[in-house]
Amino acid sequence: MIQEDKVDVNSQYHIQLLNQIRQLCLSFPETNERVSHGAPTFFYKDKKSFVQYHSNRHGDGKIALWCASTSDIQSLLVESNPEIYYLPPYVAYLGWVGLRLDRDAQWDEIKSVIGDAYLTKASSKRK
Question: Pfam families given for it (predicted)?
Fold first, then answer.
C-alpha cells in the first residue's frame, strides 16, 4: 500500500484501523466517542478525553494516536522508542504521548497504551 492511501481518510486501511481503535476504546466502562478538535476522540464519563485518533493532521503525514499519560511514562516511551512514540503538539505538556500507527507499532503495544490512557483518566483524583 502506498503512503497516500494510508493517510486518505476514505481508504480501506484508514477505515479498518479507526474501527479497531474505536472498538478497543469503547470496550472500557463509561466511554463514548465524539469529534473534538476535528478528530475522533474517546472520552471517559463524557468529560475526560483519553485518546484522539489523527490521520494526516495539518498535513503531517502521520497516522497516530494521542494518548493520555503521565509525564514519567511519556518520557520513558519517547526515549525508549522514538520511531513509534513522540511528543504530540498542544498536549505533550500535559503528559500525553503520541503513538505512530503508520510505523508498525504492534497491536499488543497499542492496546497497552490505550488501556493505560483510559486508566490515567478513570483513576484520576478529579472525578
Answer: YjbR (PF04237)
CB 113 within 8 A of CB 20: no
Q: How far is CA 28 from CA 25, 31, 49, in A?
A: 6, 6, 13
In-domain check, residue 127: no
Instruction: Look up the pTM and report it.
Output: 0.89
Q: What gap in Å lies between CA 13 and CA 7, rounded to an integer?
A: 9
Three cell numbers, residue 7? 493517510
Distance CA 34, CA 51 (A): 11
CATH number at 51 reads 3.90.1150.30
- Does residue 54 belong to any structural domain of this protein? yes
pLDDT digits 0-9 by tens, 90-102: 999 999 999 999 9
